[in-house]
Structure formats: structure tokens, C-alpha cells
Amino acid sequence: MHHLFLYLFDGLGARDIPAFGYDRATVPSLSKMMEEGMTYTGLYSVSPWTVPSVTSILTSLYPSAHGVQRAGDRLPASARTLAEVMKENGYATALFSAHPLIGALSGLDQGFDWIEEIPGPFGPAPPSGPGETSATLNRRILAWLDQRTSSAPTFIVALSGDPLEPFGAPEPEGRRYLEKGEYEWYSGVRRKLLQARPGNLGLATPGDLRRLKVDPDRFARAAHGVRDGAILHNDRQLGSLKEELQPRGYWKNALFVATSTHGEDLGERGLFGHGASLYDQALRIPLVMSFPPLVAAPRQMRKTCDSVDLLPTLLSMMGLPIPEGVQGIERNVEPTPETLRLYTRAAYAEMLPAGALPTGRASMIAEQGAKLIVYGEPPQGLEGPEMEFFRGNDPAGWEKRNLVASVPNLAAKNREILEGWRQVKGKLQLVPDDKAVPPDPRLKEILRSLGYLQGMEPARSKKP
Description:
Layout: E1 3-9, H1 28-36, E2 38-40, E3 43-44, H2 50-59, H3 63-66, H4 82-88, E4 92-97, E5 114-117, H5 133-147, E6 154-160, H6 180-196, H7 206-211, H8 216-245, E7 254-260, E8 265-266, E9 272-273, H9 280-283, E10 287-290, E11 299-301, E12 305-306, H10 310-318, H11 337-341, E13 347-351, E14 361-367, E15 370-377, E16 387-391, H12 408-425, H13 443-450
Parallel strand pairs: 1-6, 1-7, 2-11, 3-12, 4-5, 4-6
Antiparallel strand pairs: 2-10, 7-10, 8-9, 13-14, 14-15, 15-16
């Protein structure tokens, strides 16, 4: 039996890496994995923020089907998670999470024998400087592996928060892409933003930047530089983990999977942060698999898919049974005739306010060469149409122009497919818990530190 490692970058978008056209070498270790293993180039996250995204990965259910959509929601015990399936098949299971809502607070501890929370950028008090969650992840993962006495195979989920650090990563990567003066300017703006409205869910809003008299283009360029340094730091820690796993005998005997939770908006259409967009920069994510026994040469899977497909794909590749009721399909290296027939299925995503932030409501369908977004309500402060339709053959470029009026029949057809999906897959599939789990005393403060309990208005200073 082979080991299974699932490594999640929290906030790494496909557009942040060279293989998808980015002009900075942000992920040399991940790029090396791509040169040796299986890369999925058409993967979409089902949600633009972390908790529903990870829940969908672990259950193969869309957010409206598993019900974990708002900050503080819990996964019902009736869910059958990937960790539970692995445990039932003789695996020792462990979760190492840098996000406080990925674990017991959201019921995502189901099936894990061992859980460790890694201090990250989302602690109860806003951080005042760089963090290094991925380095801490490595130490904790290796310590757990080294103390094991059982010969049972392992299933490890690791979630790193480096790409979401508000002040970047430690040296030398932290300032790799930004001069000292610009780095300090950006850090100062971020501190003022946190003072005005505590919470790290989003970097800023256009109104925030206007109040601070900050040039949004300059802020976006600086944010890119800070994030790219954090991504590079995270990637180098991924490479370090691989180097440590090899002499321990884990790497060559494991299916190692690297993917992400969602992407990040950095000024596009006036949006900063995540949770308020279904555009590609917020949803399109990388997926790379290293599994020498099955993938002996580099390969690419170019079909459009979404993150609910990950659970059945991994179980199929591991030769393990796929639970009934999953909403994803197998996307493995050697598809069967039945799964191949379904490979043209579109990708779907949903967006709901994570908490008090009015980030809007929308749903999306995407397939090769076409994408439709239907809005229930736009994010606060931004005006937009009811629908946006994009085509890959648009001379203006992908997601540059809304083509609903140009191809109304095609847009209407995609909307009909999206509505059909919402009727079939967009309803709660799980039996709620008989008794409500008492809220953890930490929950309210954690939600406040994340920004889920605050609205969009800046905090008013207290009178002396």
C-alpha cells in the first residue's frame, strides 16, 4: 500500500505560476514536480474561499451540498470524508492546518487520528510581521512521521497559509520581488487597513484605498510582489519537504498531490483579496501529482474539471473504493470508458458571503472555451450585470468582455445547464446532526480576527 500526501497551498492561483504564463519563477519545486508527474491544467476550485473549498475536496460535494458555506458552519457527522475512507482502509491519518477553521472548529477533523494547528496569519491577534507557516508545517509533519512505530501507510493533509500572509514571508524570499522602500510602504498601508477594519479576509476595498489616498495600481503591484515572495518561500519549503521525505522512504512510495484552495484578486475590477469573485484569478488553481508507480513520465490532463473530482480521482489511483453519493468523477491517468464519457463535464463554483462581509452571491459554469457567471447580488460597492459570459476565442482576450449580448443563445444554453446543476447538485445532501455541537469558546474571536464578523465599513476610532 502506498502513502498519500495532500499538500494544499492556501491562496495559490494558477495565474501565479510560470506554467500558466506568469513571468516570475515563483514555484521552482512545483515546476519540477510538473516535469516529472501529472499536471491538471483546467482545474477550478468550487469556492473562492478556504473553508467550503477544503470541505469539498475532503467530501467530493459542492458547497451547497455539504452545507459548509459560512464562517462557523460545521460539517455534519453524516458526511463521509476522505480521511474516514483512508482510515477504514488501514491508513494512519493526520491533518496539519495553518487555518483555524480547517479542523475541529468546522467538523473537518472527521477521520483524522492526529491533528495539529499551525500558527499562521489568522491568529486571534493580527500579525505584525512575516510568518512562516510552511516551515513549521515541515517540522511538525516530519516529527510526526519520525515518532511513528506502526507500519501502516499514512494519509497526510497539510494546509499552508503562506500565500495569504498580509506582510509576506521571511527573508530571503520575502523581499525578492520588491525594493525595501516599496515593501515598507506596502506594509504600512496594510497596517492602516487592519487598524481601520480588523480582519485578514481581504486585502482592501476601493473605498479603503480612497480613504487612505492610496494609488490602487501601486498597491496592486506591491501586493503582487509581496505575495510572490511568500509563494516562493512556500514553494521552497515544499522542495525541502520532498528532500526530507526521500531518505525516509516516503517519496518514492507515495502519491504526493499539490494543489490549492483558491486564488486571489489583486486589483482586477476593483477587487482585492478573495471570497468576492468567480473570475479565473480567484478560482483557477494548479494540481500536480507525483506518483512514480503510475505516472512514469510527465503528463498533462487538459480537460476542465473542478475540485470535487479530487477525492474520487485519488481513491481510484490508490485502488480504493469510492463512497456512494460523491458528486465528483474520476480524472485519473488511465480513465475507464465510463469515466472517459464524463470527461467533458463542465466545472462549477459557488459564491456566498463568508460572514458579515457583503461579498456577493453568484454561481459559475466553465468549460473549455466558455464560462458563464450568474449573479444573485454583486459584491457591495461594485455594479455589474446579472450575467457575464466569456469565450476563449474572443479577440479581446479571456474574461475581458462580457459577450452575453453577442451570443445570447449560447449564454442562455449555459445558464440552462447551470440551473440544471443547481437543481441536482446544489441542494443539501447530508443529514444534519441531531444535536448541535456546543460552539468552541475560541470560535468568535477567531472569526473576528479573520474578518468574518465585520462589515465593509471602517472601524470608528474610540473617543478618549
